[in-house]
Structure formats: C-alpha cells, structure tokens
Design goal:
The protein is α/β, with parallel strands linked by helices and 710 residues long. Helix content is 47%, strand content 10%.
Length: 710
C-alpha cells in the first residue's frame, strides 16, 4: 500500500471500490448464458491492500464471490469459468458448454491486483471499431471488460452532443454546429484536435441516441466500481470563431496529414474560461457522467503549433478550468511520441496527472519515468484495426508487472490501447490475465489454461503451436511491424508496405506459420463448432498467405524492370490466385466480413440517405481514409482483409496495375502511373450488395493452402 501511494490515494478517491450485487447478478447471468446467475452469491468486501482483491469459492452448486469491486468480482468469475468450467468468453468470441451445475473449487480462488489502474481503449478504437455501436453491442463489450478486470474506461461516446449544445450556447445555429462535427467514425481525430467537420451529415436523432447510450454506459460502469475517462477541453474552436467574436485570442494549428487542425482559443481570452465551464457542465448534464473525474486531452497530439505559447502557463490554465468544474479532476495525457511535453508536465502537480503510455512495449517509462508522474503501462496491440498477428506478447506479459512493482518507477497501472478490437484476441486475454493478479503464472501455464477454456482440451501439439506463436510471432515492435498483408498494398513499382507508417515488408520464412496451421487443422472435426478455434485457424492461415504474397509482389516488379515477360506472368498469376484463396478463408470469421462491418454502420441510420452516408463514411476510413489530400499519407492505414474487400477492391486494383505493366512491356516503355484515388473512389459509391455467407469449406481451403505452399 505504501508503493505509489499518491496514485493510490487519488484512485481510491476518484474510483471508489464499489459493487452493486443486483447489477453483478444480471451480468453473471448474461455471461453464463442464463445458467449461473441464480447460483452466484456476491458480497462486497473491503480492500486490505489498497488494491482490488477477490476470493471465490464454489461448493454445492453455489458460487460465492467476495470482492472489493464489481470489476474485481468479474475477474474472479472469469478465472473460475476458464479454470473449472473450461468456458471461454473473449472480446470477440465465446466457446464451450457450461456444466449444468457449477463445479466445486478445490479451496478458494484468491488474488489481488498490483495496479491501481487497469485501463482500456484508445480514441482511435472509437473510429476503427466502436463508432456505430448500439446499446446491445455496448452491453456485450462492457460485460467483457468486467470479466477482464478493467477499472478505468475511455468513453467519448456522446461527446458530439456536448459540442452541439456548446456551440449553440455561443451563437451557432444548430445546423452550423452540426457541420463542425465530423462523421461518427472520424470523431476520435476531432477529439484529438487533428481535424473537424469531415464528412458531416448528422440527423438529429443521432444525438438523442448517443446521449442515451453514453448515460447507460456510464451508469453501468459506475455500478461495478469502474471509472470513466472523458475527453477534456483545452481551447479548440471552429475555424470561423474569430469572425464571430472579433478580437478573440486565437492560434491556428496548421495541418495534420492534409487536414486543417482546429484552432486554439488561448487562455488569456476570457471566453476560454466560459467555454471550458460550459463544456464540462454539459458533459455532466447530458452524459450522466457525474462520477467521472479523468479528462483526456492532448493539445499538441502529433504536431500543432507551440511557438509563442508559454507552455507552463497554458497547462496551468487548462488544469485550473478542469478543477474549477470538478475539484477531483485528473488530467490524462497520452504518452506518444514526444507527448506529453515535459514543460507542461512540470507545471502540474503529480496528483493531478495520469499518463497513459501507449509506447509501453517500446519504452515502458517514456525514457525518464515521465518525470515521476503517475503513468500506466499500455500496449497498442494493433494500428488501424488491421488484421495482423502483431504485438509483443512476452514483453507485455513480463514488463507491466515488473514496472509496477519497481520502487524506482511511478508506474501505477497497465492497460490496452488498441486502435481496433477485431483481431488478436489472445493479446486482450493476456491483459485480462494480468489485470487482477499479484504474481502472473508462467506463460506456459497461462497458455495451457487458456487453451483448455478456448478449445476444451489441450494436446502437446496445440501447446507447442501456441507457444511458438507467443514466442516467435507475437514478439515484434508494434510500430515498425513488417507483416502487413501483401494483398492490401496499393500497387506500385516500389510497394513494400500497406500503410505509409509501417516498416518495409520482407520475404520471410513462413514454415512456422504453416506448421501451426497444419496443427490446428488436425483438430478440425473436433473443434469446428467453436468460434474461437475457427477464428484462430483463419487468423494463422490468413497471415501465412499474407506473408507468402510478398515474394510474388517483389518478383512481379523485378520481372517488369528486367523485361522478363515469362517471369512477370508467372508471378502475376500466383499473386492473383492468392486473393481468391484468402477470401475463401477469411469468409469464415464474422469479424472479417465487409457486410457485417457495413451493416453495423447502416443500422444506426433510419433513412436511406442516412444509411448511405454512414456506409460511405465506413468505407472511406478503411480505403482512402481521408479526402484526396488526406489520403496521400493515410491511404490504406486501416486496410481490412475482408472477403468481399479482397474480391471487389484489392484484387481489381492489382489487376488494373498488372494490366498497365503488361501494356508497358508490350510497348517497351517505362511504367505509366495513373490516378489511384479516382479508381478507388468508385468503390465507395458502388452500392453493391455484399454477402455474409462463406462460399467454401474452411477445412478444404486451409488444407489446399498448406499443400500448395510447401
């Protein structure tokens, strides 16, 4: 309790140990498919250590849970379901059949956390994955978060409602205020002050629905002793604010990847305080966030102008307004690149700051322990929601606990800050495993127990296959990842990556992935009805083909440069063949389905026009990302290896490119470039009906791949 006690005091004040027995019973009933809700006796207990604690005992068909919070109780239930029931409930999939009667435990399951904070989400998650969630989606997601033991959740849902009302209070007409807001899946970058007003076409009912979802979300989290982090305010205003209020002290913020950043109203302007207080007041009023005391805001996220600003005074003013609105306010920063600026940090008291270090797996303490300010060791386990087997599982498994236990570190928590949630379920499960435990199991023991829950049994082969993935595949720098899919790269003579920010791809040894795919395939008859197994088989096979294709891409371009017609046609044929093979595999995972992705957007629209707006916006994000200027650096950043994307977007653009190269070879002329943007824009407008149904047998598709790529 002594270590990091400053952080502990603030946490216990702002996120008290709370639990609602009635809410817990309803949650337990949902996650056990209606079987164990009536068998559970939940009791709130006091924390002895100052951290979350639990104990669980099952005897005679009754499961008794005593925990310091609903979140700790959720973690206890998750451990019980996996260890004793061999039942798996993940962020994406669910597998296993619960025994009719809860099995007895051999004594009590007891554990405690070493983290004051267990944090989840990234602003980007609310663009790439969560933008169009309705309450049914959120209820399922928050049930998972409770099982995983999180106790601090970023929640920008409904913040657009706050801005709509805020701007109207400052003289904007309702339609003008709506035009300032970006489309739902672009709002995260507006809250990070990277852009504004992009793809806006809001119907009024959107705001009513979002307010209600956010209120329900905040109420549910509070009933489990889970805190909420809201977007903070540091002066962002619409570009025409100075025209409406002459004499305003404004600083323009240049551009972010081709987008104009919102300007800042500086604190010396008296309207800064007026806007701040209205903003925070509306958050509490509209979103039911009375118990939220953490405010995430990064004034100079990935750039912005600081010249002429006294950063110490600026930071002090931003925090002072937070404190004026909420005396318990804590300013949360993202630890990313050079952020937070150490000059700003130095002007703030340590008890008023919490840093969510996205770079945990690269630099666990920011290189300087963030000057001793409380920080959370986080991992960004994917970028853009791309389906890549990526992340550093071993480092995350070890380092978060080591840092939190170090007397020389101000680390006070751990968490995940994914940009998307539809991939790499095992990394989410590692975070849940570490969240509420004093001493982690050895990785091999975790894998054993995890597989028993996920597959219902374990063999030496399966154990070794997953140990290989843990040690050899999930072990790479997440930022400089070199395993983006060869099929998703925008065709060009020098193409070697998909997103402009990734590391250069290389032709790699795929024999290990092939062995894992073959191992998983051996158990197809026994496991084909478990969606967790299907997701794993698809993921490994998908990565195998994605890696394999780079040799054909490089071979194709090399043959063109050498004027080798035969070699060119050979590599072209092999590359195009991969698209159909890949589509046949990924169709079997509902999270790799374009129709499911677009349907989630469309269901939030009530009219044909609204549905078309949302669908187009959803398509844009995973293709161009932005408009013509914005797409220069951001195209394909959120590329998705969905079946119908492979068929109708990625394969056609490679066919077009191969055709251009073929014509150039025939004419004996250099490569003639062409406008990719207009060609790809047609996909956003095509209005095609996509399919949810697989068109192949998964076992045959995987077996054929394993046989072909010896």
């Amino acid at each position: 309790m002594e270590r990091n006690d400053l952080a502990g005091i603030v946490k216990r004040r702002n996120i008290p140990f709370e639990a609602d027995a009635e809410a817990f019973a309803a949650f337990a009933d949902r996650v056990t498919e209606g079987k164990y809700g009536k068998c559970i006796r939940f009791e709130k207990s006091d924390s002895v250590s100052g951290f979350d604690e639990y104990e669980l005992e099952a005897k005679g068909g009754i499961i008794t849970i005593r925990a310091s919070s609903g979140a700790a109780g959720g973690s206890a239930l998750n451990q019980y379901l996996r260890k004793y029931c061999h039942y798996y409930y993940g962020i994406l999939t669910r597998s296993g059949e619960l025994p009719q009667v809860p099995p007895d435990t051999d004594g009590k399951l007891k554990d405690r956390s070493v983290f004051h904070y267990r944090y989840i989400f990234n602003y980007c998650t609310f663009g790439y994955s969560l933008a169009f969630y309705d309450w049914q989606d959120w209820e399922r997601m928050t049930d998972y978060l409770i099982l995983a033991g999180y106790n601090l959740v970023l929640n920008p849902v409904g913040n657009e409602c706050v801005w709509l009302e805020l701007l109207q209070k400052f003289g904007y007409q309702r339609e003008e205020a709506k035009r300032y807001l970006s489309a739902p899946n672009y709002l995260p970058w507006q809250w990070m002050m990277n852009l504004s007003g992009f793809e806006s076409a809001y119907p009024d009912y959107w705001f009513e629905e979002q307010c209600e979802i956010s209120r329900r979300l905040n109420r549910k989290l509070a009933s489990f002793g889970i805190g909420v982090m809201l977007p903070g305010y540091c002066g962002a205003v619409p570009d025409d604010f100075a025209d409406r209020f002459p004499g305003s002290v404004i600083m323009e913020q240049d551009q972010w990847n081709g987008f104009v950043r919102p300007s800042f109203l500086l604190p010396e302007d008296e309207k800064f305080s007026l806007l701040s207080q209205e903003y925070y007041g509306l958050q509490k009023k509209l979103l039911g966030a009375e118990n939220a005391h953490y405010y995430s805001v990064d004034p100079f996220h990935e750039g912005g102008r600081k010249d002429g600003i006294c950063l110490e005074e600026f930071a002090g003013s931003v925090l002072a307004e937070m404190k004026k609105a909420d005396a318990q306010a804590v300013w949360a920063f993202q630890g990313w690149q050079a952020n937070p600026d150490r000059r700003m940090l130095s002007a703030l008291k340590k008890e008023d700051v919490l840093i969510c270090n996205l770079h945990g797996n690269v630099s666990g303490d920011g290189g300087d322990d963030f000057l001793g300010y409380p920080h959370i060791y986080c991992s960004v386990n994917n970028f853009g929601g791309q389906q890549i087997l990526r992340g550093d599982a071993g480092r995350f498994y070890r380092s978060s606990h080591e840092l939190a236990k170090s007397p020389d570190s101000a680390c006070c928590g751990m968490g995940l800050m994914p940009e998307g949630v539809e991939c790499d379920e095992c990394l989410f499960d590692i975070a849940g495993e570490l969240a509420v435990c004093e001493t982690p199991k050895e990785p091999a023991a975790f894998i054993e127990e995890w597989l028993m829950a996920r597959y219902g049994f374990v063999t030496k082969e399966l154990r070794e296959a997953w140990q290989y993935l843990f040690d050899e595949v999930y072990n790479e720098d997440i930022v400089e990842n070199t395993h983006e899919s060869s099929l998703l790269g925008r065709p060009a003579p020098d193409v070697c990556k998909v997103s402009t920010w990734a590391g250069n791809a290389r032709v790699s040894d795929t024999s290990g992935l092939k062995t894992v795919a073959e191992t998983l395939l051996k158990y197809y008859d026994r496991l084909k009805d478990r969606e967790s197994y299907v997701a794993d088989l698809v993921a490994v096979t998908r990565q195998l083909l994605a890696d394999t294709g780079w040799s054909y891409v490089f071979g194709l371009n090399d043959a063109f440069r050498a004027g080798d017609q035969e070699g060119f046609e050979k590599h072209a044929g092999k590359l195009l063949d991969l698209f159909d093979r890949q589509a046949a595999v990924v169709d079997h995972d509902r999270n790799l389905n374009l129709k499911n992705y677009l349907d989630k957007a469309a269901k939030r629209g009530r009219t044909k026009e609204d549905k078309e707006w949302l669908i187009k916006s959803a398509k844009r994000l995973i293709t161009h990302w932005g408009d013509r200027e914005g797409s220069v650096s951001l195209h394909d950043y959120a590329a998705r290896e969905y079946g119908d994307m492979l068929r109708y977007f990625y394969k056609p653009r490679w066919e077009k490119y191969i055709g251009v190269l073929r014509d150039c070879m025939a004419q004996g002329i250099p490569f003639q470039d062409y406008d990719r943007y207009e060609e790809e824009e047609a996909f956003l407008q095509d209005g095609r009906e996509y399919s949810c149904a697989p068109v192949s047998d998964l076992r045959e598709a995987v077996a054929d791949i394993c046989c072909k790529f010896q």
